[in-house]
């Protein structure tokens, strides 16, 4: 997708730096061979390496898909300590060797907290340049509404994912609208089923990752890659007028979310910068959901910091 221009636009040449662990070096080289064989016009070079310094040197965009997955019988703290050490070393390589205004997107779970660790250990990278992926959840929410109403997904806009990229996230349609022949209409008005929107819809989006694993016996691949491209594309090239997207970004205290967490907010992007959408009304139901996912992120943060000591 990146080599085809999906991430940075159809006119932007790219050089891909791919990093993997030494046991995967041969397979990584196979990926490089295929990229060469596809003869992508925009692809101006491929670096395939197991050396973080070589991988990070001069990069303008870093998509961090590597992490330690939770295995059966592992405690959350064990997973967290593995990821803390991974993101600590990635952070120092990025800080020392990436391009000055490098944009970082963390995909590997726990994505929000991995991004926070990366921020801690790369203090010279501006906090606005470190984000995590909740666009996959955002796109999942759009997909569910599209299926429910039997409409084009491109006619729906302004759903929101609040909080953590976990099952505590809050998919919110209170401000979402649909383009109809009679003009824009609120999603709630068209769905006409608050029970579904406040329960099953939320649960489906929250649990979608697990449902994909159950069906495929592997975690989301295509949809995650596509969402990562969407995230970077909108961040770099801007969001359409009147439309916002969901990004995990460093909280400044907006919507009474504790500052210092990486939390998913509705954002607009312009000139390569994101901005949290302000002034949206939050009802009592939503407030509880926003606080619940913030509490989970505060706990994760404390757990991650305890792994540092």
UniProtKB/TrEMBL annotation:
It comes from the Eukaryota. It is an enzyme of class 1 (oxidoreductase). Residues 16-130 form the Lactate/malate dehydrogenase N-terminal domain. The active site is at 165 (proton acceptor). Substrate binds at residues 70, 76, 109, 140. It catalyses: (S)-malate + NAD(+) = oxaloacetate + NADH + H(+). NAD(+) binds at residues 20, 83, 107-109. Its EC number is 1.1.1.37. GO terms for biological process: malate metabolic process; tricarboxylic acid cycle. InterPro entries: L-lactate/malate_DH (IPR001557), Lactate/malate_DH_C (IPR022383), Lactate/malate_DH_N (IPR001236), Lactate_DH/Glyco_Ohase_4_C (IPR015955), Malate_DH_AS (IPR001252), Malate_DH_NAD-dep_euk (IPR011274), Malate_DH_type2 (IPR010945), NAD(P)-bd_dom_sf (IPR036291). Keywords: NAD, Oxidoreductase, Tricarboxylic acid cycle. Residues 134-302 form the Lactate/malate dehydrogenase C-terminal domain. Coiled coil: none annotated. GO terms for molecular function: L-malate dehydrogenase (NAD+) activity. The keyword Oxidoreductase applies. Pfam families: Ldh_1_C (PF02866), Ldh_1_N (PF00056). Belongs to the LDH/MDH superfamily. MDH type 2 family. This is Malate dehydrogenase.
